[in-house]
Amino acid sequence: MKANLPKNEPKMLERWNEMRLYDRIREAHKGQPIYVLHDGPPYANGPIHLGTALNKTLKDFVVKSRSMSGFDAPYVPGWDCHGLPIEKKVDDQLGRKKFDLNPLAVRQECRKYATKYLNLQREQFIRLGGLGRWERPYSTMDPQYESVVLETFYKCYEEGLVYKGLKSVYWCIIDKTALAEAEVEYEEHTSPSIWVRYALTSDPAKIDTSLAGKKVATIIWTTTPWTLPASMAVTFAPDAEYVALDAGEWTYIVAKALAQQTIEKCNLGQAKEIASFPGARLEYATFTHPFLDRQIFGVLGDYVTLDTGTGAVHTAPAHGADDFNTGVKYGLDLHCNVDDAGILRDGLPEYQGQQVFKANPLIVDLLKSRGVLLGLEKIEHSYPHCWRCHNPIIFRATEQWFISMEGKLPGGGTLRTRSLDEIRKVKWDPSWGEERIMNMVAGRPDWCISRQRVWGVPIAMFQCEGCNDFLNDPAVNRSVVDLFAREGADAWYRDSAQKILPSGTKCPKCASTTFRKEMDIVDVWFESGSSQEAVLGHEPGLPWPADLYLEGGDQHRGWFQSSLLCAVAAKGGAPYRSAATAGWVLDPQGRAQSKSLGNVVDPVEIADKLGAEIVRLWVASVDFREDVMSSDELMQRIADGYRKIRNTFRYILGNLATRDFEVIRDDQAPPTINTIDSTFDPDHDAVPFAEMHPLDQYILLQAAEVTKDVRSHYDSFTFHRLYHRLKDFCIVDLSAIYFDVLKDRLYTSAPKSLARRSAQTALWRLGEALVRLLAPVMSFTADEVWAFLPATSGRLESVHLELFPAPEDLTGELPPGFDVATMEHDWSVLLSVRDEALKALEAARAEKRIGSSLEAQLRLAASEGVYPVLERYRDQLRYLFIVSDVILEQAAASNGDTGLAITINQAPGRKCERCWNYSTHVGEDSTYPTVCERCSAVLGEIEATAEAR
Ligand SMILES: [Zn+2]
Ligand SMILES: [Zn+2]
Ligand SMILES: [Zn+2]
What we know:
It contains 30 helices and 30 strands. By secondary structure, the protein is of the alpha/beta class. The longest helix is centred in the C-terminal third of the chain and has 30 residues, at 719-748. Bound molecules: zinc ion (ZN) (3 copies).
C-alpha cells in the first residue's frame, strides 16, 4: 500500500507523544461538560488479542467522538493485576523453589509478572492509536488502589453486610480455592449416573396405610457418587404426587411423573403402583444410609424438579447450594469431609484418602457389594468447570467471607433490592442487557468474597486470640487503609498484627490485647468492582459516577455486576449511567479463535503488516453489539476499503495543494493536469455558496446530510453505520460521480476562474468535513491529511484538537429563496439520466463505435417528465456525461419507462490536444492551433497573467 501505514503510523505516534496530544485535547476542552467512559481493566497476563483490541478501539471511538462533539472526555486506562492466573503462572515458574519463599516474596514475583504484561499491553494498545492517560494508568496493584479496595471492604463490614460463615461454594480442587459464580464455566463432562436404594426405617403405614408391613424404600439418583458419604437427607417435592411401586421383595417410593423411567432404569420389571400420595407425606420419614451407619431424614424442598431422576433427591449439605440451605433449615450436619485438594477424609477404607473423581468408581463398587445399586449408566452432561484451569469443580462447604445480598443498607432496602432499583435507572445498550443483569442480581446467592491465595488484597481483619471475635473498630480500619495507601498491601504480609494495630488496642468483648491477622484475600471481582471508587470522584476531571461502561457481554455477571454491588454497598448508587456490551470475536464459520484451529487474527501482526488503521477500520465496520467476524481475508478486504477512502483524500488534496501528499497520476486525465497550479488559499479563493456551480452546491448539500447522519451515529455508538455511510459517500457519490465529472473543470478551466474556484471550494469543504468526521476512526490518516489541507488562520496542530463539523459548515447559510427540495429533485433526475447515458456509452464502446467517451456525441430524446430538468441544465449535460457534445430533444411521445432515448454518434470536429474534447473549432485560433475554443481562451488568460507578473 502506498500509504505505508506500518512505517508511518509509529512516526505519527511519536509526534502525538511529543506534542502531548492527549493532554492538549483535555486542555482544549477544559470547562466543557465532562463525559467519562470508565475503562474496564483487562487482565495483565499476556499480549493483547483481537477481543481486547476491539474493546479498546471502541472505547477510543467513544472518547474521541465525545471530545469532538464538545465534551471534556478523559480516558484513564486500567489493568487488573491481582489474582489466581498470575499467581499460578508464578507458582509454575518457581517450581519447588516456591516452598522456600514467604508470601511477600511470592507477591514480589507476581508483581514483576503483572508489570511485564501491563507494559507490553500498554505498548500494544498505544500502537493501535488510542489516546489516553497511558503514562499514568490505574492498576489494581497500586498502593492507592489496594487501599481503596480495603476501604470498600471495611465500609461493607461496618454497614453489617459482611459475614463469615460456613457455606457450600464452588471449589476448584486443582487451584485449591473458592470460585465466584463468574469464574465458573459449563463444559461437557462424563459422570456415572446411579440409582441407589435408601431403605425406609420409619413406619410405612404413616405414609400410606396400604404400605403397612411392607419392605419399603425410596430410590435416589445421582451423578456424583462421591457425595454419598455426605448424604444426610432425601428431599421430596412437597406438592408433587408420589407413588409406591410393588416390585416383589421391595416396594419403592418415587415421583409418579418419573415412575416409568425409574422402572426402566432400575429393571423393576412388572412393578405395580399400589398407592399414591403427596410428597409432603414423606417429611420426617427416616431411611438408612446405603453404606454408613447413619439415619437419613425425609425432608421437603420446592427446588426438586420432576424432569430427571426419581423425585427423591439425595441431599449432601456440604456439597450443594440447595442442599446446604436445606441442611440449615432442617438442622442437618453441614460438616465437609472433603479437603481443599478434593480428598475424601474420615470415611470407609474403600474410598478414604481418594480424590473425589477417583472415588466415584470405588463408591459404585461399594454400593454393588452392599446390594443397593439399582441402576448404573454413564452420562455426558454440562458440568461446572473452573474457568482458570478448566478442570471440573465441586461444591464444598467451607468457612468463607460473604457479602450478604439481604444486608440492610442505610437509606432503606437491601443490597439486592437497591441494586435492582439502580439497574432500572441505567441505560442498557443493547436493551436486553437490563433483563439479563436484573435476573442475575435477583437470583444470585450471597457474594463469596474470600480466596485462599496470596496475590491480592488481604481481607485485613484482626481476630481476637481470646474470644475469636473479629475486631470492628472504624479507627483501626482507617489506620490500616492509610497503611495500605502508603506502603501497599505488602505491609499486611510483612508486619505482625501487633505492629500494625495502634498500641493499646483491646478486644471490646474480652479485653485481650493479642490478635491474629486474617490471611484470606478478597475476590478479584471485588477489586475490579472497586475501580469506580479508586479512579473516579477524586479529581475534578474524573467525577463519579461514570457516563459509560463498555465491555463484553459476559460482564453482566462479571464487572458490571461487581461494580454495581460495590458501588451500591459503599456509595448507595450505580457507578454508571449507561452500560454497553460488545459481542465475541469469531471466525467467519462462527468459531472462537484458537491456536489449534489456526484461525487467530492477531491485531499486532495486522498493525505490522497492514497498519493499525486497518484494525481500527475493521472495528468500525462491524456491529459490535453482535458477535463479530474476523479473518486475515476480511482484514485484507478492509484494507481495500481503506485504499478507496484514502484515494478520496488524494484527489481532494491533489487539487488544493502543491505540496506532495500523493499526487494523482491518473492515466485517464489529460496531460495538462500538472500544468495548472492547484494552490488554493481558502481565505482568498473560496467562493460563497450562492455563487457556486450547481453540481458543487448539490454535493455540499449531500455532504451536509452525511455530516448530520454520521454525527448521530457517533452519538448512538453505531459506528458500523457511520463507517458504511462515509465509505459509500466517498466511493459512490464522490469518486464515481462527482470527482469524475469534475476532472474536466479542474484540469481545463482557467486557474482563477469561478468554475475552477467553485470546484476547489467544494473540495476544500468536503476535505475539511470528511477529515473531522473520520478522525475518531481513521485517526492516523485523518491527522496526516490534516497537515496537507490548506492552512487557514487559527488552524490547530492536529485534527484531534478540533470539533466535528456542523451540517451548516458545508454550505454556510443558504442563500435566501434557495430551494433545496427542487435542487435535490433535479439532481436525482440528472444522475439517473447519467446512469442511462453511461450504459449507452459503454455499449457503443463495446461495439467499437467510439473509443473514449469524449469521442462521442450523445443525442438525448427525453419525455415530458424529465425534459424540463434536462433543459434547465442543458449546458452542463456534456460535462455530466463526459462527452464532447449533447443534443437534447423533447421526445414526441413517451419512450418506455425511463422516458429516454439515447443515441451515440462520433462527435464532429477534431480532438483538442489539451482537454481531449472534440470540437469543430479546433484550429480556428492561430496562436493555439491544436486546441479547442474553450482551451484557447484559457491559455490566453494564463499567458496574460504570466506576462503581468
Ligand atoms: Zn481451577
Ligand atoms: Zn476477644
Ligand atoms: Zn480543449
